[in-house]
From TrEMBL:
<dbReference type="InterPro" id="IPR036069">
    <property type="entry name" value="DUF34/NIF3_sf"/>
</dbReference>
<protein>
    <submittedName>
        <fullName>Uncharacterized protein</fullName>
    </submittedName>
</protein>
<dbReference type="InterPro" id="IPR015867">
    <property type="entry name" value="N-reg_PII/ATP_PRibTrfase_C"/>
</dbReference>
Length: 114
């Protein structure tokens, strides 16, 4: 078995914006893995929480208010290419995500070659 080095990108998205974010990412990159495109994993809804501080411009809640909102984890993998990763985050996720600071996590991982 041969392993491919990849970035695994996870982003937490409010339930009502999942398709918008996925479509934004796929408009920037086809997320191709072997003979499959638009490869992504979308988890079951969970809950995220945050408290906007002075200077924030929250989409939900007010300054100092603890907010809990349903969200979904969207994950996808791409080959380890820093420019591609930056393009996906800056053009695919941020403009389509409703939060001022989206929760985006990037791990270096490996996956079996197709």
């Amino acid at each position: 078995m041969r392993l491919l080095p990849v970035y695994r990108v996870s982003v937490y998205v409010p339930v009502d914006h999942v398709q918008r974010v996925v479509d934004g990412v796929c408009a920037v990159d086809d997320l191709r893995i072997g003979d499959y495109a638009h490869s992504a994993w979308i988890s079951a809804p969970s809950t995220e929480q945050f408290r906007p501080l002075e200077g924030a411009h929250p989409t939900l809640g007010g300054i100092g208010e603890l907010v809990r909102a349903p969200s979904v984890r969207v994950e996808f993998c791409i080959p380890r290419d820093a420019a591609r990763l930056q393009r996906l985050v800056e053009a695919g996720i941020r403009p389509h995500h409703p939060w001022e600071v989206p929760a985006v996590f990037v791990d270096e991982s490996s996956m079996p070659a197709p």
